Fold this protein.
Amino acid sequence: MHQIVEKISQLFSQQGGHTYGENVTQTEHAVQCAELAVRSNADAELVSAALLHDIGHLLAATDVAFGNYKHDAVGAQYLSEYFPAAVTEPIRLHAQAKRYLCSTEAQYLTDLSAASLDSLQHQGGLMSEAEQLEFMQGPFALQAIKLRRWDDEGKVEELSEKGFEHYLPYLNNSIKPQILSQ
């Protein structure tokens, strides 16, 4: 196992017990999102993104009940040294994907959890039509939308059957080749 994967695993072991306004811990949520990605036949990079999409909450502590409102950027920045854009860009964009979905699907906005509604306001609120178009023209918009939907669905205890360690091979398979050769 690569040392960054060990470091990430330790981080979730030490900090993953926080809930940030949802009914599951950060680790349970990460595992559930990864499992939903696996069940959708996503590639290793997108499974890795699903597993790590909220790592920014663990990296940048906050006193806010619903976590770090910039966790998407914090997490993507931290991971970008070790993982390719196929992992980091869906992570960086998953809050923008929420803004997009809230702006384009009325039911999506209605179904958001209290924590997601709170963070939506801090992450820019609804997107204008121009912002929507710009978002969808980005190379990882569709992956970010998939990740966002798993993010919403990954909040029920029944999906947490497997441990965090079960998904570590996806991380190992997603590390940048130049990092593996070091």
